[in-house]
Amino acid sequence: MNRFSRIFPKINPSSLRVRLTIGIAVFSALGLGGLTTWTGWKMQQLLINSHKENMEQIASRLPLDVEVYSQMLPFTTALEKAISNRETNNTLLWITNTNNTLLAKSSNFNPSSDTYANELINLTKMPLVPEVYHIKGHSYVLCGGELKIRGKVLGKVSIAQDITRDQAMFVAMIQSMGIATILVIILISGGIAFYVSYSLQPLRQISRMTEAVQAEDLGEARLYLNNAPSEVKELAQTVNMMLSRLADAWEKERQFTSNISHELRTSLTIVHGYLQSILRRQQNLTEIQKEALLTAASEAERTIHILQDLLDLARADSGYLQLSKEPCILDDIVTEIVSMAQQNSSREITIEIENNPITIKADSNRIKQILLNLIDNAVKYSDPDTPINVNLHQIKNQVIIQICDKGYGIPLQNQSHIFERFYRVDTARTHSNGTGLGLSIAKTLVEKMGGSISVRSKLGEGSVFTVSLPC
């Protein structure tokens, strides 16, 4: 079943597989249908022509037979003798004089009792060249000619051959051929669909491989196709070259971000230190100067935090972010961070922790950074008079930390992007001067420790960020 679903995936009318299958099947159907139609027409012509040739032979030989027999027998007897030699079950013969009076006929021709025979004898003129006539559902090949003996015209010879049975057999054969053609077209279409789907598997393989490539895997991601057509291999080689160029560009970007963040952070740290030093000796400063220096120091500190976040992200992307995993009591870390956040924000933050201490092996400093970012996010995007709740509990081999707020909430269409770098929900821009890096940093650190982070939010009711870490 799995193999069948791989070869015949969900049908998409716009896919190359469906288009190729339909196109080839249509051309195959037209070709087979045309061949069947031409074969049927040709066979019908051969059948009718054989009857015509037989009737032409009878029409040409019958006067000669009459002339021969009339030399030995009376004229009427000679007519009957000649007709009896030429008649068959399906061949009707009769001879009339110039006044259209019946002189002789074959034994199977009875105009008085046979409706079809009566219709035939009432025909005004017989064709000199054999032609097909349809009379009341029956098909006949008719032919006529003059009866000449010693150059004298004595009457007319009429010949009719009933081909109704042959026509019925021919129609039945054509119907059988039509059914067989339809079945062959269906089988061919199925075979074509299977073959096209099988032939397109390398393209689907390329699609799956490229879909799984992440930014951090660009340096090692390569497509390897062994049994693919040469054109597909060329495509895979082109994709590999593109991945290589993207890897180089990504590496240069990460290196640039890391270098510029490091250099700017160092310079701004020195500037911030000088500003703090001047502020500590503020006796000779005016109020305007103090306010300006405080603003400059605050912005310098904020920029240093942004650069530190960028540096952490660059190190994580490069694989150089080191985590010192050691046993730590999570209850103490959560209590410490909540106390620190309450002092800095003057917000009501409650804690719900299980009675038994929870110990995990992780980087305690990075856990503090994660909690600070999440609590800071909850403080920024909720009203000052609403509480923030931090829950800590253990479920089997997972530790669950939840930061709940009763803030503005996140629209559903934005929730899948909330952990992207520099992403900020438009409706929240007026409430905070955040950088859009805090949640991205938290997600990166959690995943580096083997955990996961998710969000559940509703507009006007608040958000719940859930961090899951292995025990």
How does this model look, in words?
The chain has about 475 residues and is α+β, with helices and mostly antiparallel strands. The protein folds into three domains: about 1-200, 2-Layer Sandwich (Beta-Lactamase), CATH 3.30.450; about 230-320, Orthogonal Bundle (Helix Hairpins); about 325-470, Histidine kinase-like ATPase, C-terminal domain (Heat Shock Protein 90, 2-Layer Sandwich), CATH 3.30.565. The chain has helices at about 1-5, 15-70, 75-85, 115-120, 165-200, 200-210, 230-280, 285-320, 330-345, 365-380, 410-415, 440-450; strands spanning about 90-95, 100-105, 130-135, 140-150, 150-160, 325-330, 350-355, 360, 390-395, 400-405, 450-460, 460-470. The strands form three sheets. A five-stranded antiparallel beta sheet has the order 2-1-5-4-3. A five-stranded mixed beta sheet has the order 7-9-10-12-11. Strands 6-8 form a two-stranded antiparallel sheet. α2 (about 15-70) packs antiparallel against α3 (about 75-85) and α9 runs parallel beside α10. The two termini are about 40 Å apart. It is an enzyme of class 2 (transferase). Its EC number is 2.7.13.3.
Briefly say what this structure is.
This protein has helices spanning 2-7, 16-70, 75-86, 115-121, 164-199, 201-212, 230-280, 287-318, 330-345, 364-380, 412-415, 438-448; strands spanning 91-96, 102-105, 131-135, 138-149, 152-162, 326-329, 349-353, 359-362, 388-395, 398-405, 452-458, 462-470.
